Amino acid sequence: MDRDPVWSMTQQELWDEETARGYDTPGSGMFSTEVLGPTVDRLAGLADGGPALELAIGTGRVAVPLHRRGVPVTGIELSTAMIGQLRQKVPEAEIPVVQGDMATATAPGDYTLVYLVFNTIGNLLSQAEQVACVRNAARHLRPGGCFVVELMVPGLRVLPPGKTASVFTAEPGYLGVDTYDVVEQLLVSSHVTFGAGREARIGRTPQRYVWPAELDLMAQLAGLQLESRHADWEGGPFTADSPSHVSVYRRPADPATG
């Protein structure tokens, strides 16, 4: 069977001008106060007065409100179009961005906090790239600093035997479906938005999913230690039924400074 053509698309093609223009949903979804408030509160606390680096900063969904809380934020972002949307909100002098791959690009200085939100590490489609990304995060951390990852837990438990797809959201006007390749740890998320009559629009994003224990090993290889794992930004307990997690990894403090 031929491979789905979505896997041949580059990240620049996936995160193009059209996607960037429609990415923000002010006041709703990922941009709602209920979602952003706890996220920014937790990250501001972990920054502890120091500078933060967001990998794959996108349009600044988290970076802009975090910056407004007084946290100096720098970003790394591959997509020219996403950076363009961010620049409509804040100038380069306020939130500088290095254009490049989050697995390899280097931002100047060092940071008390490096973070990756909303499954973004899954945009790297191989384990080797994901390991490189975690190592890149660790290189940017000051001793004692932390790396925070928000990531889904693969929903394989809901797949019936022999089936490869599951519906993750079904509501009026929208259908979300994940199609899994469980051998390669790959999935395609399909987002179908229905218009009037027979009209429908589909967006598709390929990802490589990461198990929590696998992420812990990636962090260990980068010299980081798991400090906490919760089900959400508000600190809810992580259980076997949690659909996602927020994990905090700490770079050990320099023994010379304590």
Task: Describe the model.
- The chain has 258 residues and is of the alpha/beta class.
- Helix content is 24%, strand content 29%.
- The strands form 2 sheets. Strands 3-2-1-4-5-11-10 form a 7-stranded mixed β-sheet, with helices on both faces. Strands 6-7-8-9 form a 4-stranded antiparallel β-sheet, with no helix packed on it.
- It starts with 10 loop residues before the first helix and ends in an 8-residue tail after the last strand.
- The mean pLDDT is 92.
Question: Which SSEs are present, and which pair or pack?
Answer:
Layout: H1 11-14, H2 17-21, H3 33-47, E1 52-55, H4 63-68, E2 73-77, H5 80-87, E3 97-99, E4 111-116, H6 127-140, E5 141-152, E6 165-171, E7 174-181, E8 186-194, E9 200-208, H7 212-221, E10 225-230, E11 244-250
Parallel strand pairs: 1-2, 1-4, 2-3, 4-5
Antiparallel strand pairs: 5-11, 6-7, 7-8, 8-9, 10-11
CATH class of the largest domain reads Alpha Beta
Our count of domains comes out at 2
Mean pLDDT equals 92
Second rung of CATH, namely the architecture of the largest domain: 3-Layer(aba) Sandwich
Order of helices and strands: HHHEHEHEEHEEEEEHEE
* Estimated helix fraction: 10-25%
Domain Methyltransferase: 53-145
GO molecular function: methyltransferase activity
GO biological process, one term: methylation
Pfam family, one: Methyltransf_25
What's this model, at a glance?
The protein has helices at residues 11-14, 17-21, 33-47, 63-68, 80-87, 127-140, 212-221, and strands spanning 52-55, 73-77, 97-99, 111-116, 141-152, 165-171, 174-181, 186-194, 200-208, 225-230, 244-250.
